[in-house]
Design brief:
Layout lengths: L34 E2 L6 E3 L13 E2 L5 E3 L17 E6 L2 E4 L15 H13 L3 E6 L12 H9 L2 E6 L2 H4 L5 E5 L7 H12 L3 E5 L9 H11 L4 E3 L3 E3 L12 E2 L1 E2 L18 H4 L9 E10 L2 E5 L5 E6 L2 E2 L21 H18 L5 E5 L13 E7 L9 E2 H7 L4 E2 L7 H13 L24 E2 L4 E5 L11 E2 L6 E6 L4 E5 L22 H12 L5 E5 L17 H8 L5 E4 L10 E7 L7 H12 L3 E6 L6 H9 L4 E6 L6 E2 L2 E7 L14
Parallel strand pairs: 6-10, 7-8, 7-9, 9-10, 17-20, 27-31, 28-29, 28-30, 30-31
Antiparallel strand pairs: 1-13, 2-11, 3-5, 3-14, 4-12, 5-6, 15-16, 15-19, 16-17, 18-22, 19-20, 20-21, 23-34, 24-32, 25-26, 26-27, 33-34
Length: 680
């Protein structure tokens, strides 16, 4: 099997030198060494040419970066190879960022984005003030998308408030943040902004690559033109195949103009890159200082709480291998390219040793929780992030959870974790570099499993598949219940979408997980994979959505609930990855997205991203369960332009697994679809 390759994350290099602050704020304490931009545009001159004036450019892309016109309407300025590409511009109280930089989905602790933006605020505002966040012009990136940064800014001394009336609320503000507006600003708003800046107010403008041509860039340029600035936003996308955070459209850079006082510290961010506000910085009201009582293994230890009680901590969002003494709990299918129990047990012991190097009994650490996760697991252990002093300088600013991943002692747990996608990118880097336990990960050696001929499928928590107007036509139903009366799978080839009425890849029905029936002879895995390929001619990974309440739901699946299917796909040279934010996920390398019964609504940006994905040839498989609420699943189906819908429960008292009528089995296939048999 071909091993998955991920582009290596940029190794940040320290930037020396600093300039005196232009607005006299407090002592600078923490350096900015590297920034990550996500789906970023560049800046260019107001005259339509390149922006080459270094007095207004604090940040450029690396030399290897390029830019192009992603929506192909010839309205982007393309920098020549020898020109540096500006990513941030600053002039006369206006700072323009090519990317949002500090939204919750992209603060993962690897880069200094949060510290940088707080430094910019400090330099322009003097370390305090009222900042209004515009939500009056159809912005997707409203303040709710920046909860971690908002918290860090408030802790740093700023009063950050959303506004739905930019025109009226400017009079009470020191600064305003305007992210890519979906609607054009009125003449009255533009005039008010010009007066605001003339009176000493500060504007922070954040754009993004406008590859869907939604005109946000033009709307921001209405502001730059009205203010008479020497720069404007570019209707382009900046890419860098060498310096990036896992994909070329996530360029990273260390090219800074230190004549600006933006790079040597500031009042926020916690000193550890994005870990500051994102990870509940030291002393945050949301953190609890505890004392290490004993160490069990790499991801479990006991602590003494402030009230003297002793609690067991389960390090949140990660999984280290089990030690030899707990071999029965190990599941090799979860570890890509690794099948040896002994090897995993060795690395379980290594992870324990790492924890003992990180902590001594009696050390103090800080713990904090994730709003997307419960505070305790089924065993009563606290599910927590852990910050500790990794350098011995007394500052507890290293996130232990992430260190386990980066050092190759752990994999990411496929849950609803806020930091899931950032942690997953860190794991991808560790795998690509063969770090730690991944050194012996060899997917090329993974054998094919469960890809033989089969005669039956089973459908846990089965549900009917129908259309928005009634019954599904036979020509669109490859699988029925055994009676032939009710479709269990529906296909909409014109929309590249399928609907499956049951959680057909749920590992709860594996005998190795304790299910009383051996289901290895059923064809669920090759069938689903063949179904995907019938909808798309593209190749690449299969992505499963985990950001809409699927983890821990008995009506849905995360990749944590489908490890055996992941192992099957590994033998077929197909990656299986979870992503929690489909609006920002890189789906360019995916052939399909699987969405199981969501318990929350997809945002308009997520619907747009998935619609763009299928328009580009990708497939979406919607998988529902009879015990779940199908409202959000069917709403997504509608947004994708298909009439397929999940209907009511299907039961079969005669043909089922283990006498459970909610798990019907069937051999009622329409062979004309060509979906039934080995995948390869």
């Amino acid at each position: 099997m071909r091993r998955r390759r991920f582009i290596e994350l940029l190794a940040a290099s320290a930037v020396g030198g600093t300039a005196a602050a232009r607005t006299g704020h407090g002592t600078l304490t923490t350096s900015v060494t590297a920034l990550r931009f996500h789906s970023t545009c560049s800046l260019y001159g107001a005259d339509g040419g390149p922006l080459t004036d270094s007095t207004v450019v604090p940040v450029w892309a690396e030399d290897e970066a390029t830019n192009d016109d992603q929506d192909y309407d010839d309205d982007a300025f393309v920098y020549w190879d020898w020109r540096q590409i500006p990513l941030v511009a600053s002039e006369d109280g206006v700072v323009a960022f090519g990317s949002v930089l500090v939204d919750d989905a992209n603060l993962d602790g690897s880069y200094d984005n949060e510290q940088f933006v707080l430094n910019v605020w400090d330099q322009e505002l003097g370390g305090s003030g009222t900042v209004i966040w515009d939500e009056s012009n159809a912005q997707y990136y409203d303040l709710s998308k920046f909860s971690s940064f908002e918290s860090a800014a408030e802790s740093a001394g700023y009063d950050v408030q959303p506004t739905t009336n930019l025109h009226n609320d400017l009079s009470g503000a020191d600064a305003a943040v305007i992210t890519s507006p979906g609607d054009a600003l009125s003449d009255g708003e533009l005039d008010k902004l010009a007066q605001f800046v003339d009176d000493g107010g500060v504007l922070f403008l954040h754009d993004q690559s406008d590859y869907n041509n939604y005109d946000e860039t033009n709307h921001l340029n209405d502001i730059t033109f009205r203010l008479g600035l020497s720069f404007q936003f570019n209707d382009d996308q900046v890419a860098d195949t060498q310096n990036n955070a896992g994909a070329s459209y996530r360029p990273t850079t260390t090219v800074f103009n230190t004549d600006f006082g933006y790079f040597d510290g500031g009042s926020g961010g916690g000193g550890g890159g994005d870990d500051g506000g994102d990870d509940g910085g030291s002393g945050s009201p949301d953190t609890t200082t505890v004392t290490i009582e004993s160490l069990s293994d790499g991801d479990t230890f006991d602590v003494t709480m402030p009230d003297g009680s002793v609690e067991s901590i389960r390090v949140l969002g990660v999984d280290t291998p089990e030690k030899a003494s707990n071999r029965s709990a190990e599941r090799p299918p979860e570890w890509e390219g690794i099948e040896s129990y002994d090897y995993l047990a060795t690395w379980g012991a290594n992870a324990t040793d790492f924890s003992k190097q990180a902590f001594d009994v009696g050390d103090t650490v800080e713990i904090f929780y994730d709003d997307n996760e419960g505070q305790t697991d089924p065993f009563g252990r606290l599910l927590a992030y852990v910050r500790y002093d990794a350098t011995g300088d007394g500052s507890r600013d290293t996130l232990y959870n992430r260190e386990l991943i980066e050092q190759g002692y752990a994999r990411v747990y496929g849950s609803a974790l806020t930091k899931h996608d950032g942690f997953r990118n860190a794991e991808a880097t560790a795998r690509a570099n063969g770090t730690g336990l991944w050194a012996n990960s060899d997917p090329n050696a993974s054998s094919e499993i469960r890809d033989g001929s089969y005669s039956e499928l089973f459908f846990p928590k089965a549900a009917a598949v129908e259309t928005s107007t009634g019954a599904l036509a036979d020509s669109r139903a490859p699988v029925y219940d055994q009676s032939g009366a009710t479709p269990l799978v529906g296909v909409d080839s014109s929309a590249n979408v399928a609907m499956v009425g049951g959680l057909t890849i749920d590992e709860s029905y594996e005998s190795e997980e304790g299910y009383p029936v051996d289901t290895a002879e059923y064809g669920n895995y090759p069938f689903l994979t063949s179904l995907v390929d019938s909808l798309t001619s593209t190749t690449g990974s299969i992505v499963i959505d985990g950001g809409h309440g699927q983890f821990g739901s008995d009506a849905a699946l995360s990749n944590e609930d489908a490890a055996y299917y992941q192992r099957y796909l590994e033998g077929q040279d197909i990656a299986f990855e979870q992503r929690n934010d489909l609006a920002t996920a890189d789906l360019s390398g995916a052939r399909a997205v699987v969405v199981t019964t969501p318990s929350s609504t997809f945002t308009s940006a997520e619907k747009t991203a998935l619609s763009d994905f299928v328009a580009g040839g990708g497939a979406v498989v919607l998988m529902g369960a009879s015990n779940g609420d199908a409202t959000d699943l069917n709403d997504l189906a509608s947004a994708l332009g298909t009439d397929l819908r999940l209907g009511g429960s299907v039961r079969d008292s005669s043909n089922n697994l283990d006498g459970d009528e909610t798990v019907p089995t069937t051999s009622s296939f329409d062979s004309s679809f060509g979906l039934f048999g080995p995948y390869s």
